[in-house]
């Protein structure tokens, strides 16, 4: 198990290194941040001063050398735009995104799995057909449009919930969170719902397919033949057998939401890292983009690791062996 | 004979299909007394498994019991509500399924599946239930039962798993056990071990046993009485020795002549010509008439009614074989 973990972490660092290199040179090729950063009114001396301060006067391979040297000391560089360390900048925006992602996934799971199981157990019932039709809609609606519709319905017409922003936050262990204040929670609901609807449709479809298949297995009939209650048969015997594909997809989707919640964050003016990334790319703020993507890769690798460990908890037949992955 | 544990009268089980209702079990009547073993013999599709599930009340939509009575110790099971029926299942009537590889839930440990069965029917603590489970495993000859409890089904062989299933069936000391081809999927050596153990346990505990099989040789060694099923009907029934030595129904004789050891070495086996008829498309008269060497015009026009003979035998045939033949 330990050897397995070490190997997985090694893989993570390799992927991060390759990615950082590609992005570093890629952004250099895209354009020169100086053109966007420096006040055109400034005189030549000021301009050169700024360029030197940002280290942009050096050839690119020297700049990359500095970047690596900084990396070795845990320094991912300083934002050209905000003049703050890139990692600190990202971490200051990360809690908002994590909060959004986890609430969205939570809604998707808590509603999606039961709805999918209902549709799988009674495929012919009218309510099952409604559930499946709803999942097709949720699946195929463009995210930004769906966000606008949610705002229009709940914020404009009904006036129940605010249209954007993060609302009040309270600090928990020094991290600002919204979901613990009523105002913050009301700001969180719509964007989280916007994230959740697509995932929920996905979960419903996966759960339904799995349930329909597992419900026909001998061990389900046998569970009934032993006189177990329907709740136990469905909630334990069927549920535990369908969770593997659901967990796989949710793991990938969680990474996706955290890394690319940019549409939802833009529509709802949610101050998360997705918005930061788009702004930074627009300004060619290379240290922030590189640091952001490295963090994203790290998150994906970690989530996949958690998913793999989750498998072995769910299904004894895929217990992770020390030697191989 | 003592009062029968189970008495089934004129049971009819039908399945609704697009092509109309299919009658899978057509007027089956049978009785089993305490400590008695009844063998139900028939080819695939003869309705023997459906008969078992009908007794258990486990026929799923679009199927259903269309007529007849199922009396367990005088209580009509068809009049019970589903929750009341669930309380009987696994407690008063237990069932053993055909394929031990598919019967136990692959993601739950043996102890989980045994304890949940006990606690569905008995108000006992988890640790008491665990002790009961270990005792039951020891009873069916599983070595080191306490350690075995903590394993998953996939860590056991097929024979071991079937022993676990038998242990679960015996655990709550039911009045009746329905075993649906429980040894078909096993090696011959394991098969005979399990057969002799079952026989011993049934006699000790005075449990009634219905043994569903397509294998007449198994029935010959195990059962007290035999019912031969063909196309949803019992065509012949009687004490095992009389029935096997002097079959009266041409189908029963056909089955016996198909067993390699039933004819002297060197002589040709006598297979039954043709195939089991599709239940969608049964002949008008006797279902066996198209394959029967003794069939006459009468057989093709009318279905033979049941005639009760002396010595506890009964028969559905217009032209039964004579004792001397």
From TrEMBL, chain A:
Stretches that traverse the bilayer: 12-31, 100-121, 142-161, 173-198, 242-270, 290-314
One GO BP: transmembrane transport
Main location (coarse class): membrane
Subcellular location: Cell membrane
Keywords: Cell membrane, Membrane, Transmembrane, Transmembrane helix, Transport
Pfam families according to UniProt: BPD_transp_1 (PF00528), BPD_transp_1_N (PF19300)
One GO CC term on file: plasma membrane
Bilayer topology annotation: Multi-pass membrane protein
Protein family: Belongs to the binding-protein-dependent transport system permease family.
Alphabetized PANTHER family for the sequence: ABC TRANSPORTER PERMEASE PROTEIN, DIPEPTIDE TRANSPORT SYSTEM PERMEASE PROTEIN DPPB-RELATED
Protein's UniProt name: ABC-type transporter, permease component: PepT family
Naturally occurring in which organism (per UniProt): Mameliella alba
């Amino acid at each position: 198990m330990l050897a397995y973990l070490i190997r997985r972490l090694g893989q993570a660092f390799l992927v991060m290194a390759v990615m950082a290199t590609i992005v570093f040179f890629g952004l250099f090729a895209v354009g020169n941040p100086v053109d966007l950063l420096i006040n055109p009114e400034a005189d030549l001396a000021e301009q050169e001063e700024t360029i030197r301060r940002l280290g942009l006067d050096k050839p690119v391979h020297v700049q990359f050398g500095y970047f690596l040297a900084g990396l070795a000391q845990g320094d991912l560089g300083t934002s050209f735009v905000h003049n703050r360390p890139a990692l600190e900048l990202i971490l200051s925006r990360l809690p908002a995104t994590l909060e959004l992602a986890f609430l969205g996934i939570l809604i998707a799971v808590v509603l999606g799995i039961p709805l999918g199981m209902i549709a799988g157990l009674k495929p012919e019932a009218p309510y099952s057909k409604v559930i499946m039709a709803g999942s097709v809609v949720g699946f195929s609606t463009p995210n930004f449009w769906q966000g606008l519709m949610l705002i229009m319905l709940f914020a404009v017409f009904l006036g129940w919930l605010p249209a954007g922003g993060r609302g009040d936050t309270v600090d928990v262990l020094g991290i600002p969170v919204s979901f613990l204040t009523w105002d913050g929670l009301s700001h969180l609901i719509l964007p989280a719902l916007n994230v959740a609807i697509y995932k929920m449709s996905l979960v419903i479809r996966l759960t339904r397919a799995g349930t329909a298949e597992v419900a026909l297995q001998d061990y389900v009939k046998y569970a009934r033949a032993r006189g177990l209650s329907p709740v136990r048969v469905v909630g334990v015997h069927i549920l535990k057998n369908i969770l593997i594909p659901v967990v796989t997809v949710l793991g990938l989707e969680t990474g996706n939401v955290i890394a690319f919640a940019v549409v939802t964050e833009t529509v709802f003016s949610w101050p998360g890292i997705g918005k930061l990334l788009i702004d930074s790319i627009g300004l060619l703020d290379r240290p922030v983009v590189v640091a952001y993507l490295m963090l994203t890769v790290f998150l994906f690798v970690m989530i996949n690791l958690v998913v793999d460990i989750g498998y072995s908890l769910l299904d004894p037949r895929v217990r992770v062996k020390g030697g191989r992955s | 004979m003592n009062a029968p544990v189970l008495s089934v009268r004129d049971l009819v089980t039908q399945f609704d299909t697009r092509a109309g209702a299919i009658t899978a079990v057509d007027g089956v009547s049978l009785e089993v007394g305490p400590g008695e073993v009844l063998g139900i013999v028939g080819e695939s599709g003869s309705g023997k498994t459906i008969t078992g599930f009908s007794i258990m009340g486990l026929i799923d939509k679009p199927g259903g019991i269309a007529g007849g009575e199922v009396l367990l110790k005088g209580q009509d099971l068809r009049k019970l509500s589903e929750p009341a029926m669930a309380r009987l299942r696994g407690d008063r009537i237990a069932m053993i399924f055909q394929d031990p590889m598919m019967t136990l839930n692959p993601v739950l440990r043996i102890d989980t599946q045994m304890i949940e069965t006990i606690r569905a029917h008995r108000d006992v603590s988890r640790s008491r239930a665990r002790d009961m489970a270990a005792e039951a495993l020891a009873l069916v000859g599983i070595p080191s039962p306490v350690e075995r409890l903590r394993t998953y089904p996939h860590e056991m062989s097929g024979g071991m798993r079937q022993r676990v299933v038998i242990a679960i069936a015996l655990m709550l000391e039911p009045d009746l056990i329905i075993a649906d081809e429980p040894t078909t999927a096993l090696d011959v050596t394991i098969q005979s071990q399990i057969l002799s153990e079952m026989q011993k346990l049934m006699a000790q505990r005075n449990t009634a046993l219905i043994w569903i099989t397509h294998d007449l040789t198994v029935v010959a060694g195990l059962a007290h009485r035999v019912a031969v099923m063909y196309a949803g009907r019992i065509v012949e029934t009687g004490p095992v020795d009389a029935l096997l030595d002097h079959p009266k129904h041409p189908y029963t004789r056909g089955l016996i002549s198909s067993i390699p050891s039933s004819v002297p070495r060197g002589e040709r086996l006598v297979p039954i010509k043709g195939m089991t008829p599709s239940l969608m498309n049964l002949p008008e008269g006797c279902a066996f008439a198209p394959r029967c060497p003794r069939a006459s015009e009468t057989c093709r026009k009318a279905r033979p009614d049941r005639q009760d003979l002396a010595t506890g035998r009964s028969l559905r045939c217009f032209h039964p074989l004579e004792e001397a033949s």
